[in-house]
Amino acid sequence: MRSDIKEGNKFPDYELPDHNGQKRKLSDLQEKDPVALVLARGGFCPKEDLQHQWMAKMQRELKVGYCRFITISTDSKLETLEWRTRLGAHWPFLCDEGRMIQKDLEIKEYTDPRHNPMIPYSIILEPGLKIFKIYNGYWYWGRPTPEEMRQDFREISKNIRPDWDLSDSQVKKRWENNQKEYFFPYKKE
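Below the sequence we write its predicted structure tokens.
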């Protein structure tokens, strides 16, 4: 992995086609929410498939927790669409058939010349594509567990949501002063 890809730094704002062929930028997909970005070997890998199965089971949690998943693999558009459909996944899967990210991040998995995948990483991103944590998933146990992912999302959400603790007197004062922009999903008018 490139030396500048580390906790606290900004992750590159790559633009790739999704499972439908539409070009998507990571920052547009993230919006203002925490993201688990999974740089995946591909749907052919049983480790990858198992991780994505439990991610699919977490989809409802992410929806109500205002967090997101994004998967990027070196699979073709058709393989990506089939894998996403098989999982019942509803988050974006981006296709990097040309291995742009693999080359740019220096994460070529040299142990599998047949598939030529990326070394798998799960990267937890704060808003603004800021790297919160990096998990190296070459071995299955290097990948985050569902509980670790929940804890990462909790920590980020606690730090970015000004209305996290409604028992805080300052938070209550903002509400009473009609400063609704501090409360999710209210926006300043």
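DSSP finds seven helices and seven strands in the chain.
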